[in-house]
């Protein structure tokens, strides 16, 4: 049974107010108790939120690094206070740092432990009082998008202003009115020559505008302007549901400026306009005819500034840690104890996996040959090996390359088999008289290698066209079969890539999930287009994630070098201003003075006390 203190603490949280006593006991049993000494950091600004904290005793302060890179106190934490409950559902980042000022005890609940007792569809999950957390409920009810990344959630998700549909519907209604007026005029004038077209014209005048209005409505509903906690996205479909789809996006950290434009009396009267989002290296993302463009501007700028503050806070703590580590001092804020979060693997899992891998017997040459043959005859459209991801064109492209030789191959065998069985149809009897069975077999043996070569050529031509992402670059490689064939390879370094997007060009592409991945670079390579890719939006996300990971690693490496240089400067400054600590090169140097006598040496117990500072 859970401790009474944690049960009471959980009972006071409005989200859990509707739970029965048994459910409260189960949920409280998932909490863990953690102790923090004075001046230790519970969580840090910019870290991912995957746990809630309830303070049982002690005290703490909330610190936040502002836009000027200055850390300020923004609040206090007292017993009974609870952190944001959205950490149980979303990957946010802590907007501030919690520093313990008096020894404190917390009850913590990680997302993994919460899901273990309250999974989707469970009684506990259904009884949660989301009405008491309207902001959390709103975020949970947001429409999910297939391209959302792990931990990413929508802040704003809306369509174009309704006027985008109404103005087209007005045109369809005007066409309907004009056609009906013409039919009415024909009826009044009693033109007998046009009497036969009255009924079809009436149907066309009503049905066609209604179909157009339905098309315009579906087209309006399929387009979205989305702002997430990581990026801004314009999702556009140009042919109702199964037509072309493009996604124009930019990370929030690349946003430089956001402007709004309201042109014309209609936009100013109905309160909609264009949101112009200028980004670093990615051009401009436009939300045209967006409702309440001022709201878009304020939210995007706020999220962009939050990302900057998070980066500044991380940089500040990295600098502090590097300097303290170089000077050999004790860190000002010790990390809190381990939480025992269930999100990681079980203890010993990696070791067991490694042992199993080491114990695996070496494969025989026969199994390796079979593996090679299987990969050659049935290659996957995505293969990851030794840090290199290889994509091939869609299977539909392979079909287009081999359907002709495959058809000839099939017909050739049908003709030979039926000739040997003397079952050729009547219209082929003259040909049967011209070719004996022996002649037919001889012709088959001559044509078969040619048809097989034709079939192999089409297959190999598809197989040799590769799109690759290596640890340092992206490659678009095309090569014809046989080694003397034409070979063309375009390569772009990962640090030159600015953006990766995808599109499906038509109805058929949308139907079979085939499209183009567009890679925009800042170098002489220009724009690389990977055409006829299977599931292009997933591939674009995969490539973009790897590109961002490489660029982030490069940036972190440069920042680490700068931190080490900065720490070296501070160490030299400290050595220059405190030469007594380095005179003898040991920890007792600070108590020595060349000009002092031995009797001036402080007592041993005092030396120990001084050594604490």
Separation, N- and C-terminal Cα atoms: 45 Å
Total beta strand runs: 22
Instruction: Tell me the Rg in angstroms.
Output: 35 Å
Strand-residue proportion = 15-25%
Q: Uncertain runs with pLDDT below 50, 5 residues or more?
A: 329-362, 582-613
Main sheet characteristics: 7 strands, antiparallel
Mean pLDDT: 76
Derived structural class: alpha+beta
Task: Estimate the global geometry from the Cα principal axes.
Answer: extended
Helix content: 40-55%
Can you list the strand order of the major beta sheet? 8-9-10-11-20-21-22
Q: Work out the helix count.
A: 17
How does this structure look, described?
The protein is an alpha+beta fold and 613 residues long. Helices cover 43% and strands 24% of the residues. It contains 17 helices and 22 strands. Strands 8-9-10-11-20-21-22 form a seven-stranded antiparallel beta sheet, with helices on both faces. Strands 1, 2, 4, 5 and 7 form a five-stranded antiparallel beta sheet that branches. Helix 9 crosses helix 16 (536-577) and helix 12 packs antiparallel against helix 14. The chain is extended and about 105 Å long. Mean pLDDT is 76; it is low at 329-362 and 582-613.
């Amino acid at each position: 049974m859970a401790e009474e203190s944690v049960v009471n603490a959980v009972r006071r949280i409005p989200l859990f107010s509707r739970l029965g006593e048994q459910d409260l006991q189960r949920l409280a049993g998932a909490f863990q108790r953690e102790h923090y000494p004075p001046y230790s950091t519970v969580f840090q600004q910019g870290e991912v939120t995957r746990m809630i904290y309830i303070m049982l005793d002690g005290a703490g302060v909330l610190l936040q690094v502002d836009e000027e890179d200055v850390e300020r106190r923004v609040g206090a934490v007292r017993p009974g206070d609870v952190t944001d409950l959205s950490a149980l559902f979303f990957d946010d980042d802590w907007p501030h740092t919690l520093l313990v000022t008096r020894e404190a005890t917390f009850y913590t609940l990680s997302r993994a432990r919460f899901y273990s007792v309250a999974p989707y569809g469970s009684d506990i999950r259904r009884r949660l009082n989301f009405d008491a957390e309207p902001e959390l409920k709103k975020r949970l009810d947001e429409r999910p998008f297939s391209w959302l990344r792990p931990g990413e959630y929508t802040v704003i998700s809306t369509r174009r202003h309704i006027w985008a549909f109404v103005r087209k519907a007005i045109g369809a209604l005007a066409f309907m009115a004009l056609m009906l007026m013409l039919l009415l005029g024909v009826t009044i004038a009693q033109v007998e020559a046009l009497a036969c077209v009255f009924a079809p014209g009436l149907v066309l005048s009503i049905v066609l505008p209604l179909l157009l209005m339905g098309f315009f409505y579906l087209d309006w509903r399929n387009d979205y302007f989305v702002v997430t906690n990581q990026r801004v996205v314009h999702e556009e479909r140009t042919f109702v549901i199964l037509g072309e789809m493009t996604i124009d996006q930019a990370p929030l950290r690349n946003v430089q400026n956001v402007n709004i434009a309201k042109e014309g009396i209609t936009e100013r009267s109905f309160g909609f306009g264009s949101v112009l989002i200028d980004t670093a290296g990615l051009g401009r993302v436009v939300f045209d005819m967006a409702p309440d463009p001022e709201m878009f501007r304020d939210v995007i700028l706020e999220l962009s500034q939050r990302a900057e503050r998070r980066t500044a806070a991380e940089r500040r703590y990295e600098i502090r840690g590097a300097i303290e580590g170089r000077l050999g001092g004790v860190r000002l804020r010790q990390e809190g104890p381990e939480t025992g979060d269930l999100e990681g693997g079980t203890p010993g899992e990696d070791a067991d996996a490694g042992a199993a891998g080491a114990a695996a017997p070496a494969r025989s040459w026969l199994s390796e040959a079979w593996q090679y043959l299987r990969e050659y005859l049935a290659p996957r459209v995505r293969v990851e090996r030794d840090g290199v991801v290889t994509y091939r064109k869609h299977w539909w492209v392979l079909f287009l390359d081999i359907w002709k030789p495959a058809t000839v191959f099939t017909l050739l065998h049908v003709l030979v088999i039926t000739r040997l069985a003397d079952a050729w149809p009547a219209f082929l009897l003259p040909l049967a008289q011209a070719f004996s069975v022996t002649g037919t077999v001889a012709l088959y043996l001559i044509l078969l290698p040619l048809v097989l070569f034709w079939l192999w050529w089409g297959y190999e031509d598809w197989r040799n066209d590769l799109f690759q992402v290596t640890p340092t670059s992206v490659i678009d490689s095309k090569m014809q079969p046989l080694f003397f064939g034409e070979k063309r390879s375009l390569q772009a370094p990962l640090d030159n890539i600015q953006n990766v997007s995808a599109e499906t060009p038509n109805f058929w592409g949308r139907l079979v999930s085939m499209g183009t991945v567009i890679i925009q670079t800042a170098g002489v390579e220009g724009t690389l287009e990977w055409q006829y890719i299977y599931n292009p939006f997933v591939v674009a996300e995969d490539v973009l994630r790897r590109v961002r990971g490489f660029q982030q690693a490069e940036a972190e490496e440069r920042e680490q070098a700068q931190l080490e240089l900065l720490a070296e400067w501070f160490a030299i400054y400290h050595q220059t201003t405190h030469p007594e600590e380095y005179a003898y090169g040991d920890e007792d140097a600070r108590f020595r003075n060349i000009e002092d006598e031995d009797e001036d040496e402080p007592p041993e117990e005092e030396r120990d006390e001084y050594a604490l500072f």
